[in-house]
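STRUCTURE:
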């Protein structure tokens, strides 16, 4: 989560974990770091359904990657939420077949995707892009420690 401190034009708005204590602790940590007004969510579906959320950062355990993606995609398909994008920490999947499944699922609902080479956490983090709230000139002048992904 500390890596989010230097990222501009986005806020961490919450986290989900199957362990509710971990989710609550991570949300508190995000607020303490000043990277956003994070809250803990009870499910991935609840996160995707929140209209404040534009994108997800998927950082859960490798063996949960496909089931997490299926829940995200099902929520979008059912009209329960809308996302602009999805980032996924390394590894994308445990093997090539799973990686193709993750990519196919993302593409099936038009998600823009990015895959990061960063140390993982056990949470799914929510982010909201602020790019639609500011002009390019304002973005350049904004304090990079204030806003992060």
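SEQUENCE:
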């Amino acid at each position: 989560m500390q890596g989010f401190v230097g990222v501009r034009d986005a806020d961490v708005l919450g986290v989900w974990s199957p362990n509710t204590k971990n989710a609550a602790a991570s949300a508190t940590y995000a607020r303490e770091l000043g990277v956003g007004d994070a809250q803990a969510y009870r499910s991935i579906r609840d996160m995707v359904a929140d209209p404040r959320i534009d994108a997800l950062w998927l950082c859960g355990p490798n063996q949960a990657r496909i089931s997490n993606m299926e829940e995200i995609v099902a929520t979008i398909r059912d009209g329960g939420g809308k996302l602009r994008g999805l980032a996924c920490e390394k590894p994308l999947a445990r093997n090539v077949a799973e990686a193709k499944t993750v990519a196919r699922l993302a593409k099936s609902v038009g998600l823009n995707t990015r895959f990061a080479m960063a140390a993982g956490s056990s949470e799914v983090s929510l982010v909201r892009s602020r790019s639609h709230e500011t002009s390019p000139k304002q973005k350049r002048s904004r304090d990079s420690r204030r806003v992060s992904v």
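REMARK: The chain has one domain: 19-131.
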